[in-house]
């Protein structure tokens, strides 16, 4: 039980700490010692109905346990709708015995994974007035695996919507503290297969955390006029597809996190229920796809034509930590938008500066006495910790009625100061200054330069004073940047595949929240709001899931690969000067929803090329069996495949060999015309310095829609120092369309 999944939001306080993905304590499997939850994957049995399948699971397990009753009690879930597997509580010996059975493909422990706007759509060019296919948008169903949902939220009102689409086979029952579904929120279920109550959550699809309400409304929230957080970020809140239907599958729990077996159960249900797009803002799976429930679930979804969009993770800015990087997943990085939330701070000497964060409090006085935490220590022993204003380090009599200057330490410094009578907190931090935390009492974050100033001022006078003003929204230069927290490539799963795929806004996004939790969740916070700001790749992911649903509403028959291709080849590459990690930060670039609807050409494929890709990566019959549903794959008959990576991907990545000679990669691609029947495309190559790239042929002419053309790209690059990357591009251009693929060359 070591690996965990996290929701990819920054809890904004932990963000200060760089403890971005703090695990809340995780309940191990206790009571039944030496037994753990395992997921047992079985060979596909298409002819068998679901009841028989479940019976077969019990029989199979009986043969190992020696008792039908024991087997029946041990099975906690039979995945029977969309694939063939079960979850059960087993000893290690039982797991091993099961693994030796003929039709058992794998037996893997179920791990626990933790919980990792208004302006954002206009920023991406998807305006309220953008062309929509309303009829098909209403037929589109988006599914989210998350913390649940707030059904009362204005974002999920069903104004203007008829009954659910006919294809919908899902359910929404009556649950505790859950007011029920409507024609907008058409599905709500929860999965908690370990059977242990979560002390901070409710066994119901209700969202106690706020994360699921936020992501759902970014994806498909109905229009809500005059939405804001205490007047900040005011505007019309809406999702990408405001008329699409929402199905929520609650798999993440406030204190226990998100378990593999629950995630798989949600996939089993969602695929069967008829969703069109699945959005997963959860991270933390292992690099091996066959033991990552999100990768496995997403592959089964892919086979049914359903695209999975997932968050890249919040482990940036260091390299090589992107999550959810399977080639059949659309992996989303977070970018910033053109606004900032800042508070003015006035000092008694007339100096004025601004700090970051949302402090919704109006000061009563013009100035308050100011003290440094270091000077307000409870006693000499606590002097060191007092600098950081940690709990119990300060003398309340030196803090009462004052603004306190602290170095950043743990979450909720302002809450510590408030509890002992302080008026406000100025926090010094040089980290992660690109998203705004929300404070439960007056506070602001300043950088090191300003902090030096403040500290010098405090010690320059007998009566230092300061005031922190209420936060205002500031316009920033629009150059999109990759958020510092957003996880970067290279892809730890494969050096032949560029990840992340794409970037979308994930900084300070305003969207729906829950009234069951205060804004910060900190002790003593009395701030509640129907909308709030959150940051994380968790917020970027539903933006792209929304774009995928938008594209699908125009092209209901497109495959997941075609939808991904449309989104990637129409994206706008971001500035390399602003974003040093280039494609390892933003993938193909910032998504452009309106262009994605009309890409001209798409790199399409079914599921077989993904298998070939994995064969090339060293997967074999047994490690592929879980994905394919049988032991029938023989990689040696699939390889050698067509080219360097064997996958018809819309981006290309060459990993240099670690030696002096140049490395050559031959990429073969097949592209499908989805634009005008008669079209001619010319190739333009932009090679990075020192790299030779050629394409053949250089002109592709099409005479009909859905016609396919093949071409070959040869990339030849000299060796580079370790851990470097350079990038160029291939662009197919017609009179109407620009189809762009980044080409990345990296050294190990
Ligand atoms: C959930 O519902 C129960 C029973 O109606 C009620 O006692 C409880 O306070 C509710 N919990 C929350 C967090 O609203
Ligand atoms: C808009 O919201 C603000 C703050 O939430 C509120 O004070 C104001 O009355 C609202 N305006 C309208 C027109 O509803
Ligand atoms: C600190 O912030 C000020 C004002 O926003 C800015 O001018 C300065 O460059 C920043 N310093 C650093 C080291 O980021
Ligand atoms: C298949 O791959 C797995 C994991 O890489 C490895 O443990 C196993 O030995 C391989 N099996 C064969 C038959 O090569
Ligand atoms: C896979 O195919 C190769 C070549 O056809 C064959 O030699 C080999 O026996 C096959 N392996 C398995 C496990 O069937
Ligand atoms: C493509 O190239 C041909 C021949 O070089 C040229 O005549 C044509 O104008 C080009 N088309 C576009 C769209 O650039």
TrEMBL record:
GO cellular component, one term: extracellular region
Protein name, UniProt field: Xylem serine proteinase 1
Stored Pfam families: fn3_6, Inhibitor_I9, Peptidase_S8
Annotated CDD domains: PA_subtilisin_like (cd02120), Peptidases_S8_3 (cd04852)
Active site: 146 (charge relay system), 211 (charge relay system), 538 (charge relay system)
Compartments reported by the entry: Secreted
Location of the Subtilisin-like protease fibronectin type-III domain: 646-745
Record SUPFAM superfamilies: Subtilisin-like
Record-annotated Inhibitor I9 domain positions: 38-116
Signal peptide: 1-31
Keyword Hydrolase: yes
Annotated Peptidase S8/S53 domain residues: 138-587
Family classification: Belongs to the peptidase S8 family.
Superkingdom per UniProt: Eukaryota
GO biological-process terms attached to the record: proteolysis; response to symbiotic bacterium
GO molecular function: serine-type endopeptidase activity
KW Hydrolase (keyword) present: yes
Keywords annotated in UniProt: Hydrolase, Protease, Secreted, Serine protease, Signal
């Amino acid at each position: 039980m070591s690996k965990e999944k996290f929701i990819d939001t920054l809890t904004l306080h932990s963000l200060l700490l760089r403890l971005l993905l703090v695990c809340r304590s995780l309940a191990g499997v206790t009571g039944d010692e030496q037994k753990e939850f395992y997921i047992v994957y079985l060979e596909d049995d298409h002819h068998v109905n679901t009841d028989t399948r479940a019976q077969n699971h019990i029989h199979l397990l009986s043969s190992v346990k020696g008792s039908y009753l024991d087997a029946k009690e041990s099975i906690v879930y039979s995945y029977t709708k969309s694939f063939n597997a079960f979850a059960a509580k087993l000893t290690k010996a039982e797991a091993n015995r099961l693994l030796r059975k003929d039709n058992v493909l794998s037996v893997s422990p179920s791990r626990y994974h933790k919980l990792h706007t208004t302006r954002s759509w206009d920023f991406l060019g998807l305006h309220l007035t953008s062309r929509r296919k309303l009829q098909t948008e209403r037929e589109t169903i988006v599914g989210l695996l998350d913390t649940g949902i707030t059904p009362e939220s204005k974002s999920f009102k069903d104004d203007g919507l008829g009954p659910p689409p006919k294809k919908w086979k899902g359910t929404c029952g009556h649950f505790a503290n859950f007011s029920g579904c409507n024609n907008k929120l058409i599905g709500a279920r929860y999965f908690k297969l370990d059977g242990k109550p979560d002390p901070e959550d409710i066994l119901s699809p209700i969202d106690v955390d706020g994360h699921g309400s936020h992501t759902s409304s970014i994806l498909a929230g109905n229009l809500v006029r005059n939405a804001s957080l205490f007047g900040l970020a005011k505007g019309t809140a809406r999702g990408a597809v405001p008329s699409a239907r929402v199905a929520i599958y609650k798999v993440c729990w406030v204190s226990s996190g998100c378990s593999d077996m629950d995630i798989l159960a949600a996939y089993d249900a969602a695929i069967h229920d008829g969703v069109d797009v699945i959005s997963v803002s959860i991270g933390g799976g292992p690099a091996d796809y066959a033991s990552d429930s999100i990768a496995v679930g997403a592959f089964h979804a892919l086979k049914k034509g359903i695209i999975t969009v997932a968050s890249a993770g919040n482990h940036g800015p260091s390299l090589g930590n992107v999550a959810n990087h399977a080639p059949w997943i659309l992996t989303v990085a977070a970018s910033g938008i053109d606004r900032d939330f800042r508070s003015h701070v006035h000092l008694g000497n007339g100096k004025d500066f601004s700090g970051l964060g949302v402090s919704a409090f109006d000061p009563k006085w013009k100035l308050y006495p100011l003290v440094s935490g270091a000077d307000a220590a409870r006693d000499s022993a606590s002097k060191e910790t007092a600098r950081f204003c940690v709990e119990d380090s300060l003398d309340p009599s030196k803090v009462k009625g004052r603004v306190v200057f602290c170095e950043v330490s743990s979450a909720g410094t302002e809450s510590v100061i408030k509890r002992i009578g302080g008026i406000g907190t100025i926090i010094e931090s040089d980290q992660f200054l690109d998203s705004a935390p929300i404070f439960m009492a007056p506070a602001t974050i300043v950088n090191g330069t300003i902090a030096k100033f403040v500290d010098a001022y405090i010690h320059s006078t007998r009566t230092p004073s300061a005031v922190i003003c209420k936060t205002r929204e500031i316009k920033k230069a629009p150059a999109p940047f990759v958020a510092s927290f957003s996880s970067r490539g290279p892809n730890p799963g494969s050096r032949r595949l560029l990840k992340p795929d794409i970037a979308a806004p994930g900084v300070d996004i305003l969207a729906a929240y829950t009234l069951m939790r205060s804004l910060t969740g900190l002790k003593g916070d009395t701030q509640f709001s129907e909308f709030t700001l959150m940051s994380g790749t968790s917020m970027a992911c539903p933006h792209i899931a929304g774009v995928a649903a938008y594209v699908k509403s125009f092209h209901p028959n497109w495959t997941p690969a075609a939808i991904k291709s449309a989104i990637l080849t129409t994206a706008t590459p971001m500035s390399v000067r602003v974003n040093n990690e280039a494609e390892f930060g933003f993938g193909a670039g910032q998504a452009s929803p309106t262009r994605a609807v009309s890409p001209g050409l798409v790199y399409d494929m079914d599921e077989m090329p993904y298998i070939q890709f994995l064969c090339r990566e060293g997967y074999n019959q047994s490690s592929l069996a879980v994905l394919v549903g049988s032991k029938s794959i023989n990689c040696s008959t699939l390889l050698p495949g067509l080219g360097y990576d064997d996958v018809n991907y819309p981006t290309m990545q060459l990993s240099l060999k670690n030696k002096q000679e140049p490395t050559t990669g031959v990429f073969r691609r097949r592209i499908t015309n989805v634009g005008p029947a008669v079209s001619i495309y010319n190739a333009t190559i932009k090679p990075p310095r020192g790299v030779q790239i050629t394409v053949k042929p250089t002109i592709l002419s099409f005479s009909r829609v859905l016609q396919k053309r093949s071409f070959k790209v040869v990339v030849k690059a000299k060796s580079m120092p370790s851990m470097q990357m350079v990038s160029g591009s291939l662009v197919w251009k017609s009179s109407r369309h620009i189809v762009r693929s980044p080409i990345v060359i990296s050294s190990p």
